[in-house]
Amino acid sequence: MKDRLARLGIKDINSGISTVLYHWNGQGELIDSFSPTNDSRIASVNLGSADDFEKILSIAQSAFLEWRTVPAPKRGEIVRQMGDSFRVHKEDLGHLVSYEMGKSLQEGLGEVQEIIDICDFAVGLSRQLYGLTMHSERPQHRMYEQWHPLGIVGIISAFNFPVAVWSWNAMLAWVCGDVCVWKPSEKAPLSAIACQNIIAKVLKDNNVSEGVSSLIVGDRNIGELMSKDARVALVSATGSTRMGKAVAQNVAARLGKSLLELGGNNAIIVTENADLKLAVPAIVFGAVGTAGQRCTSTRRLIVHNSLKDRLVESLVSAYGQMKIGDPLNKENHIGPLIDEAAVEMYLNAITSALNNGGELKYGGNLLTNLGKCYVEPTIIEVKEQIEVVCNETFAPILYVMAYETLEEAITLQNAVPQGLSSAIFTNNMQESEWFLSNAGSDCGIANVNIGTSGAEIGGAFGGEKETGGGRESGSDAWKAYMRRQTNTINYGKSLPLAQGIKFDF
Ligand code: NAD
């Protein structure tokens, strides 16, 4: 790992690492980055201070004045080079993500692939930032709209996707002409520093101002500064609903823009017309992948009464075959939780479910022989949607509920505060269409015969209700990173007023 870190520009791994921009260091306290894979300290990192934040913002502000004037396809060319650089560093960065966050190596590499993919997407987008042309009601007038850069985009990211979610924001923001200030999760600072090093080199090679991409390693205090600062035109925040509510209030108080990607509580409905050969692997991957630490993890299974016992039996058998251990070992399917606080939440949720009528079908134990953060994936059957089922516990716990009518199933699926991802398994067209209709799933993502977990970068990603309502990544999500301007041009020799108003003088 030491060699990989060195190739990513992280050299001094035994003392404080203090890379923030090319040439100056974070001034705040030292924090440790731990690997949950083996409970070891990887390195210590200086947090950015309020003074650092101030310096970064003024560098970003002046960088914006230049960057916004670079033609969008030229900005796309720089992003293309960034994508190439991530291709070169994919193995090293994928290993670091896996080691620092604890997700499987395949998933760590998958995160870097997402960065590469969104770079490609953004390059194409840089030539497609289209506005509409409208017919004016006045003669010899032309009306159209165009999209301009917003300014500074503040990106607050969560630990579970320490790099991919940043790239969904940053690559789009850059082709849109914005500059970015990134505050990564304090639980995965090294992965962020590695990305910043890769970006910084591309910017330097192209003689582009460093302030186009700034990183400030900080805790929630820096997140709060960012939310309250009117110079940050858009705050794109990914994390818990608790965090999102705080950010939303701070940004709204100054009438700024926010894009919120918050917690999920995702369900799969399995009807009596489902193909279980498809449903079982989708449920298992969705519930145990990344040790249940994806915003799109499957947390609730709503299954038709007639199938419930058979399906639970198949799941218990599949869970028994899962290999848990060091995520860097490709043989293992499930790695650790992020830290001991997450283990505590896992245990508390299980206790609460069992105290409120839940029946344990699988798991529930810590795997202390592997380390402090390894837990068994767990299945609990519940009779109704009790309180703990309505909360997002960021751990591999699957709650199973039975239903009789599809209406009942959809009502259960929608009866939680979150609205991110959802899925139905059925071969019945009426059932799937109902689920996708305006009377169906209330989530931002609704799938048929594929699970809740994971998403392709081409679609707009995000969810409703307490998930925050933001959309990132594909489709027309780029519009959140720009401001729309409507323009009317009079090429005639008179000044007809709108609505036919006459104003004689
Ligand atoms: P978290 O809310 O604890 O922290 C997320 C980020 O917010 C961190 O960078 C943190 O420092 C910062 N932060 C915390 N409080 C803040 C405040 N008051 N003001 C400003 N910034 C603040 O979340 P986490 O534990 O890192 O990540 C897990 C959560 O993220 C889960 O709820 C998960 O569902 C969610 N998530 C959502 C998506 C999505 O796209 N919807 C993607 C990934 C993760």
TrEMBL record:
Gene3D superfamilies found in the cross-reference section: Aldehyde Dehydrogenase, Chain A, domain 1, Aldehyde Dehydrogenase, Chain A, domain 2
Top-rank lineage group of the source organism: Bacteria
InterPro entries xrefs: Ald_DH/histidinol_DH, Ald_DH_C, Ald_DH_CS_GLU, Ald_DH_N, Aldehyde_DH_dom, ALDH7A1-like
Recorded GO MF terms: aldehyde dehydrogenase (NAD+) activity
Domain Aldehyde dehydrogenase: 27-486
Keywords: NAD, Oxidoreductase
UniProt-annotated catalytic positions: 261
The protein's Enzyme Commission number: 1.2.1.3
Pfam families the UniProt entry points to: Aldedh (PF00171)
Position of the signal peptide: none
Group of enzyme by EC: oxidoreductase
Subunit-level organization: Homotetramer.
Family designation: Belongs to the aldehyde dehydrogenase family.
Name recorded for this polypeptide: aldehyde dehydrogenase (NAD(+))
Source organism of the structure: Lacihabitans soyangensis
Taxonomic lineage from the root: Bacteria, Pseudomonadati, Bacteroidota, Cytophagia, Cytophagales
